[in-house]
Amino acid sequence: MSAPAPTSPVATDLAIQTSDLVKTYGEGHAAVTALDGVSLEIPAGEFVVLLGPSGSGKTTLLNLIGALEAPTSGSLKAFGSELGELDDDGRTAYRLDSVGFVFQFYNLVPTLTARENVALMAELTGSDAEQRTADVLTAVGLGDRMDHFPSQLSGGEQQRVAIARGIVKHPRLLLCDEPTGALDVETGKQVLGVLRELANGSDRTVVIVTHNAVIGKMADRVIRLRDGSVVDVALNERVGSAEELDW
Amino acid sequence: MSYLNVKRRRDLKRRRWQYGAAALTIFLGVMIFATSYDAYRNLDLSYRGTYDRLAFADVTVTGAQSGFASDVRAIDGVAVVEPRVQADLPMRVNGDKTFIGRMVGMPAGEQPQINRVDVLVGEYLGPDSSRSALAETHMFDHFALQLGDTVEYFDGETWRGLDISGSALSPEYVWPARNAQDVLSLPGSFGVLFVDEGVLDSIPTPLVEEQDLVLYDNDVITEDIDSAVRRAASDANAASVVVLADQPSNKVLQLDVTGFEQMAIAFPVMFLLAAGMATYTLMTRLVYQEREIIGTLRANGLSRREVVRHYLSYGLWLGGISGVLGVVVGMPLGWLSTEAYTAELGIPDTVRGFYWTTIVIGILFGVATGLVSAWVPARSASRLDPAEAMRGDMTAVVGHTSLVERLFPVVRRIPTRWRMVVRGIGRNKRRSFSTVLGVVLALVLIMASWGLIDSMRYLLTRQYTEIQHDDATIIFDSEVSASKVGLVDGVPGVSRAESVLALGVSVKGPDDSYTTQLLGFDATTEMHQFEVPLPDQGVLLGRTLRDQLGLKVGDVATISCTGLDTTFEVPVAGFLSEPLGTFAYMRKDVLTNALAQATPAVAEERLTQPDSTVVMALFDDGADRQSVLDDLGSVPGVASVTDSRELFLLVQDYMGLFYVFVGMMLAFGGLLAFALIFNTMSVNLAERATELATMRANGLSRGQAARLVVWENLLLTIIGIPFGLAAGYWAASVMMASYSSDLFVFDLHFEPLTYLWCALSMIAVTLISLWPGVRAAQRVDIGSIVRQRSM
Ligand SMILES: Nc1ncnc2c1ncn2[C@@H]1O[C@H](COP(=O)(O)OP(=O)(O)OP(=O)(O)O)[C@@H](O)[C@H]1O
Ligand SMILES: [Mg+2]
Questions:
Q1: Which of A82, B15, B170, B491 pairs with B261 at a CA distance of 20 to 30 A?
Q2: Whole-model pTM?
Q3: Of the ligands numbered here, which is closest to the C-alpha atom of A57?
Q4: What domains does chain A contain, in order, with CATH numbers?
């Protein structure tokens, strides 16, 4: 048997496909090449961890995939369509339709309760907002804290509200930039557990950026970046659970 | 520490538009202060200079018995008492239309000791000048008189001519007002000739007023001498006593001085308040943003005092620079406005003082505004606990349901983004207050000026459509018989003519006396509409006399008729709130009766003389005014025709100009609101940048994000509008009250649409103020904001 091609255990459609992706900031002498010819494929439904040292281009790649920024050159396809060709409205529509974002700092609206922060996004995407809001908050384990304001919630709880906000519109892609960066180990594990759960048994693709290599153990696929290039893509034979992690 | 200075410079530069808006507001406040305060002082001194130089009378007493002069001369503080004669007579220039002018007797050969004149053209009346006259400068200019031109006057029997020998400026007529009832005399409908007093000898005595002019010593307490002179005048049965403060020309000019004085106070207060609030908002944000830096510096040994000093220095720079610039620009503007003003009114003495106090106060205002607004943020910066500040995880905003939602549970059902808008208001109460304050201050400015225009317009409309209906007043050259009234009535275009008694009187109550006109109308008159029917007993008086004379309904007033040399008593039947001038009214038959029983009695026939009876005419609708007026002028025996509505029509023509003034205030008000709303919005957006960027990352569109913040601020504006309208109404009414007197009664009036326009203008200003912030927020690079941590 020849070496197995890196295929997803759940689905074979590609969520993301990039080739020779370049992102440069600034011009002339001040130009910084954050991504320097990245080619990779992320099949739909996988739980992917993006690893790399500080400044290696992780956030840049995630922002490109989420269409927060436009590539300088190269191709970036999400679910088959070229993101580089989208105008601003098209990028907003793509994000609304397909992307959920979670950041290191939860960035909740402090004047809205957990429920309202989630409902705000739910209302932008079709009917049934109330039900969907309650469902996702329950799914992230906050069924009993829904009417608390951010200032009344712990960091981990706020991050789970942020995750709920990211997934309430049922995006095909959930992008998380250092979701555990501001959390302690135990709380971090809880949050990762929730995220892992979201990818399991659905065709939702979850991409997590981190510089914590340990988190790679619970991924289907681990992509390593260094100086703006992909240095390694590894598929995990055995996917660990969040509780097993230790750092 | 010089690096702290570098930091301050860069901080100020980074937020240059915001600090710039605050600085501009301070600058404007100080500039307007310097301009109007200097203008106020210069104007006051300019008048005084002219008054002193020309020995403007401190009191003018009319119709006192002989012996009065020597009594007054004995009063301590009285410098000079001088007799004078004057007469109001029909006049005409070059056969032009006839008007009632005034002839003032002057000693020939040398100027009088009191009420001297500046001869601007020609020469003062020579020893042999019984056929020449100096025209008061407004008259000289209006009729474009040349030396040697002839002005005719009607001496009671025939028209006589006088040669114009020059143009003269008199302190009595800097503002050319005939009397307190008629301060808005139009050029060409009034004029003063200064003539050899001998000329007035040939005029029938009832037409001639004998006056005593009184001049006080310098540096005396005017009020004390005023009351002594009043007592003496009362003892001498004087018909009228007019002190300098009540002299019509002076009183009108004082309104302008008051205007500048009010401006010198009100404008800076509002602008500096707004600037202070804007600076405070910025500084509070700065300190909040830098709490970790402050904590670290403090932990490394920077003292509290140095922290306070550092943040105070922002206010010092801001206020100091703006204050200095404000004074530098404002003072020359003050000189310019004094010059423009004195030139416009022809005041010969233009004082252009240099006041150190203006400089000191102006700069102090600026510096104090900066320091006071930076003080609270600076102090809170110095009180930060270094350990806590460095951790930097103090949750800034504590969410809670808003009051509105608690009061109206329905609100909890509206879409979440609207709830977010509602709660945004409670998010930072000081900032919300700042926006509301901007709206309120702007509305105060706008409404105070707009109220002035609306009220003035309403005053004139009321006077000329609801009260005074007559189109023309006709004076005959001899006895006014029923047939003469018929002649007027017969002129094509005249729908009705009535004879009306018009007597120069002095009304006396327990507290004071007041010189005015007593008009006697038929009970069925159509010339004048009264709020209460003309009583069959007693007199109706303008309401300002209630307080001024100390009279109330039912009291008996003493009325002295200047021309008829008689006095009678009459009960006060009521007070009228007529806006223009303060008059006395009686039914014609009641007045005739009262005079028949007066001491000495006046026969009914005497009253038909043209000095007591005029004819008023109503025109047909749509009649050609000018041709009817011309036709009336050629009715045999008519000495003069006065267009009663000329002023009203003229003001209508100038309305556009008044709205330019409102527009200017709108610009100032808009600037005030802009400085506050723009800064508040900038700070608000800075605080929410990451929160909004995260939502944008999750699919919120640019438009949706913009609408959220715009609506939040609009809602604050909408909340501010009713407060602003109320405060503006109050400010306008205070201003109106300060302008009201016996000359005009300004009842504050707003057209309903004015409120709407004011409110709409505030919404427009808000949208303009939000525009730069929203634009910047939309251009923002979400990708780089989400890389930063939330602030
Ligand atoms: N707006 C920008 N302008 C210039 N350079 C930028 C900009 N944003 C990112 N960079 C640079 O691009 C490179 C990659 O940045 P990126 O944020 O993707 O790194 P990262 O891998 O996420 O690092 P970290 O783990 O520290 O978050 C860095 O060298 C960074 O300095
Ligand atoms: Mg990163």
A1: B170
A2: 0.81
A3: 1
A4: 14-239 (3.40.50.300)
